[in-house]
Design goal:
Distance between the termini: 30 Å
CATH class: Alpha Beta
Number of helices: 8
Strand content: 5-15%
CATH architecture: 3-Layer(aba) Sandwich
Oligomer: single chain
Radius of gyration: 18 Å
Length: about 240
Amino acid sequence: MTTIEQIDRSRVPRHVAIIMDGNGRWAMRQKHERLFGHRNAMTAVRQAVEAAVQLGVEYLTLYTFSTENWNRPQAEIDGLMELLIKAVHDETKTLMDNNVRLQTIGDLQRIPERSRTVLQGCIDRTAANTATTLILALSYSSRWEVAEALRQICRDGLKDSDIDEETIRRYLATRDYPDPDLLIRTGGELRISNFLLWQAAYTEFYFTDLLWPDFRHEHFYEAVYDYQQRQRRYGKTEAQVEASK
């Protein structure tokens, strides 16, 4: 298992994104309902955040609730919204202790008002923190994000000659953050499920069969160590990359 001492601190990814998959399957293996898995996932969230802070990762984005998740049974949705309130309430002190700033992206108007109020309270309380920025993707999907960006571009009356890649980037929900360098997905699935599609154009992917509730510090270190063994070329040849060092 990878240890923190094996990580090259000069080459830590600036932004790590995580698709936290496997809560339901983990719960079923324990012969419990799906919400049991979501409740036990909070330990994994805490460990991932702590590992990011330890390594100096500037941004950590967690795919918390997708727009597609609204299609789940209402009882599960209600349970997740209540769990969100409890988690934010319980973890605010931990965020403060670790100097972590909380932010959100997504269609938050669909989130119940009580949940939004609790979230905003934590966002306000942690606003001055300067270590890692923790971004919760809530009621989020890339297709929603791109469609919303295009709608806003039309509302602003931009001409086609005004629009380039940078223009689109400024209209995305992630406009204040760098693109992710590393995307981790737990649960064994080999897809990114409508998550940061535009931003992940040159992101390195790391897939693991580990179910999210079992994720710990060392698994975060392992993903970062694996990332550090790769050469990011951005369309250049290996010789060009070596020559630029």
